Amino acid sequence: MIARLSAITFNTFREAVRDRVLYNLIVFALLLVATAPLFGEISIGVERLILVNVGLSAISIFGIIIAIFIGIGLVSKEIEKKTLYTILSRPVRRWEFITGKYLGLVMTLVVNAAFMTAGFYLALLLVSHGLGKDDGGLLIAVYFIILEFFIVTAITLLFSSFSSPILSAVFAFALFVIGTFAEDLRNFAALATGVTKWLATGVAYLVPNFSALNVISQVAHSQGVSGRLVLWNTVYALLYSLTAAVAAVLIFERRNLK
Amino acid sequence: MITRGKTVAIVLLLIAAFAGSVVSLNGAEGARGEQATLEDILYIPSSKALKRMGLGYSGVLADIYWTRTVQYYGRKLATRRSDLRYDLLYPLLDITTDLDPHLIVAYEFGSIFLSQRPPVGAGQPDNAVALLEKGIRANPDYWRLYFDLGFIHFFDRKDPKAAQQAFAKGSENPKALSWMKALAASMAEKANETETALNLWTRLYETTSDEMVKQNAFQHIEGLRTDLEVLELERRVKMYHDRTGRLPANWYEMMHEGLLGAVPLDATEKPYKLMPDGTVQVEDPDSIPFLTQGTPPGWKKSTKPQ
To answer: What phi and psi values does residue B247 have, to the nearest 5 degrees?
Structure first.
């Protein structure tokens, strides 16, 4: 089983690299390194703050765009090219195929994030003329961004297991946007009454909560992130991703591929 | 095709994972703490940088900041803590109005809740004045901002002269309602403070479109009316004493004497209490916020907003 899973995982990763996904890193590097000195021009006194906000947000957005646009083709491309039949005719179970695809894309995103983080620190070095103790804390935000990728990939895979690539992209992106406002949704639920309260609470739990994973502004202000939060967010991201991935497996297992 | 047993196992795993995600999300939110949430609200504390990064969509950014301001205030107030602080209220309002200088509601709502004393407001009347003066500079034709300015000068800065100037300046606007001139005059005459206060709160109640401001104004009006009623009832008790040489034992004795038409009721529809020493008290002072008369001796105003 491990051998089959790792074969699908590494093939997915290789395919993404072959698709020139990592070219986005050049755009990212250009965006940050080339514009870093400009931050001082437009924002006196808050250069580092803005760089951290822009840099970490860019890592997150670039990764999420890749997760969605690669994720929507994970299943449909295999069906379209008829390679799926070749894979499933071998002793590969459907859930192994889905899990392998998921892990392969997550791996791509983690490698991508690692390169972007290196570029981000380089830009930070340029702006701050050195790295301080607080700058190490920024890695926690990067870790949470990677946890976001886990969730977005699982959601995209879920949609792509039953819908067309374009619709899957629209659904996944819409859910991502809703998820970034999940805290507002929970605040709304807290203030609402009756059926609205139950409905809003249910929706708030059902949609992925990206605001819980967003500590960008916190680390930008050099505030610490508690170990408890790291632990809970890790558990949350893993369990939510598991929920979406299991739902994708359930749909894919029942899907008639003839 | 998938077997029934396998489907059940997958569904059970799905439910367990989702339930676990709900529990862990609550844990994460508990671990986030207050400070993180506050910093999230401000996000980038420079409106200049925000404007440039907003690529011209500063209206949308202003709306987002405005929503966060209302949520910040609402969430703080809902905690019902006596040591409430609204440190971020002014910076949030300042950024919001920098992004959209014509967002009138931000000036009106913000100034009222910035100026009032905690727990209802931030207790920062000077910041409230600064915010309104900024609003007047950006919206010189909007006479209501002058009303709000005079209001804060009168109530929170205890400066009737500045209040009179604000009302007079606002009344010069051809769109201003006629009572603005009357208000300016009442400031100049140093009229009865309680009645002037009642007049000001009533004007605010009648003209504001913001529900939170309206409710706040209503509570002030109830408090002031009760103050006036308590003073009036005590005056009539004294009249009874002057006529009969003794204090009345109950309201019926005063009705019998023709000093009252019916048993007097307070704002909560409960009868006023006539005390043995001739003073008048309300049944439940906590149910009428902003009350200053008719409270039991030694009673301390509850810090909990109603």
So the answer is: -85, 145
Residue A59 CA to residue A54 CA, distance in Å, equals: 9
Which element (helix H / strand E) includes A17?
helix A2-18
Coil/strand/helix, residue A46: coil
- The confidence band for A237, taking pLDDT boundaries of 50, 70 and 90, is very high
Cβ pair B25:A236 closer than 8 A: yes
Alpha carbon distance A2, A5 (integer Å): 5
Give the A window 60-89 contacts with B, CB below 8 Å: none
Q: Please state, in angstroms and as integers, the Cα–Cα distance from residue A136 to each residue in A49, A227, B33, following that order.
A: 14, 15, 21
CB B84 within 8 A of CB B76: yes
Q: Residue A28 belongs to what H/E stretch?
A: helix A24-42
CB distance B10–A253 less than 8 Å? yes
Q: Is the pLDDT of residue B38 over 60?
A: no
Residue B125, classed as helix, strand or coil, is helix
Q: Give the closest-approach CA distance of A10 to chain B in angstroms.
A: 26
Q: From the centroid of its chain, how far is CA B93?
A: 16
Q: What's the predicted TM-score (pTM) here?
A: 0.62
Q: Is the minimum CB–CB distance between B42 and chain A shorter than 8 Å?
A: yes
Least Cα separation, residue A177 to chain B (angstroms): 14
Name the nearest CA neighbour of B173 among B204, B141, B137, B136: B141
State how far the Cα of B163 lies from the Cα of B165, in Å rounded to an integer. Answer: 5
Closest chain A residue to the Cα of B19, Cα to Cα? A239
